[in-house]
Amino acid sequence: MKITQLSDTFLPASARAIRRVGAGRALRTAALPAAAHLVPSVLVLGQWWPEMAPPLRALPGGLCRWRGPSTGRPEVALTFDDGPDPSTTPRVLDLLDEHEMRATFFSSGERVDRFPDLVQEIARRGHEVGTHGYYHQRHLFRAAPQIVKDLEAAVAALERLRPSIRPRHFRPPYGQVSGGSIMAAHRSGLDMVLWSAWGREWADRSVDSVTERLLSHLGPGAIILLHDSDGSAPKGTADIAFEALKRILAELGERRMKSVRIADLVRN
């Protein structure tokens, strides 16, 4: 018999009950911070697969957005993650110019510091620069203070270029939203944006199926996720995204729809 079991034998029933209650309370107390960190990500998973949950547009207070408001305007928001990348981002900019479309580039702070001129060019051409955090790391595996520090560094990287580029919108890496993500965005005054349509071009190497997946959700208010860099994805991801982008832009033209910046999509 273990010592703890032996000591319990000689405890009054009331004392043993108190011990059990105390252990349960300790477990619940320890679980609360973990739940606060993980539950937000569980709540947003359903928005990645619209058939799994009633589609939401946004949560109040800029906590999270998946779609633009229900205005009926023939507008979508093309968004690009993981750049900028001098080998792939310029051709995306040229193609958008060719179709007279605007987009939002969620740029990693580490790459902003490496390629500041390219970030400036994105803004000069009329696109919105959002932030994707400084390092492309999963928030579910990072403590809240680490996430706060990371996002502050990402915002500072853009502000160093010029104050007018200070981001308004934030997309966490991998779309993983934790309690720390929400805290960090609030402290930096940023609205969090995910997406309503994604091509999954990092996993699906078929341009046809990537395009079909995007077109199936290409309605007014859609926020479309693509990648303009292979920086955090398998080699060739940006090439597949670029080929799919050609078809998406052509389809938008056929439907007489426009791609606008997130800031313009959510305007009243």
- Report the top-level CATH class of the largest domain: Alpha Beta
- In total, the number of strands is 8
* Molecular shape: globular
- Poorly predicted runs are 1-11, 14-21, 26-32
Which CATH architecture of the largest domain is right?
Alpha-Beta Barrel
CATH level-3 fold name of the largest domain: TIM Barrel
Strand and helix order: HHEHEHHEHEHEEHEHEH
Task: Indicate the mean pLDDT.
Answer: 84
How would you portray this structure in words?
By secondary structure, the chain is an alpha/beta fold. It folds into 2 domains: 3-45; 48-265, Alpha-Beta Barrel (TIM Barrel), CATH 3.20.20.370. It contains 10 helices and 8 strands. The chain has helices at residues 3-9, 13-48, 89-98, 109-114, 116-124, 144-161, 179-187, 207-215, 237-254, 262-265, and strands at 75-81, 103-107, 128-131, 169-170, 191-192, 197-198, 223-227, 258-259. Strands 1, 2, 3, 6, 7 and 8 form a 6-stranded parallel beta sheet that branches. β6 (197-198), α8 and β7 form a beta-alpha-beta unit. α6 (144-161) runs parallel beside α7 (179-187) and α8 (207-215) packs across α9. The radius of gyration is 23 Å and the shape is globular. The protein starts with a helix and ends with a helix. The model is unreliable at 1-11, 14-21 and 26-32 (pLDDT under 50).
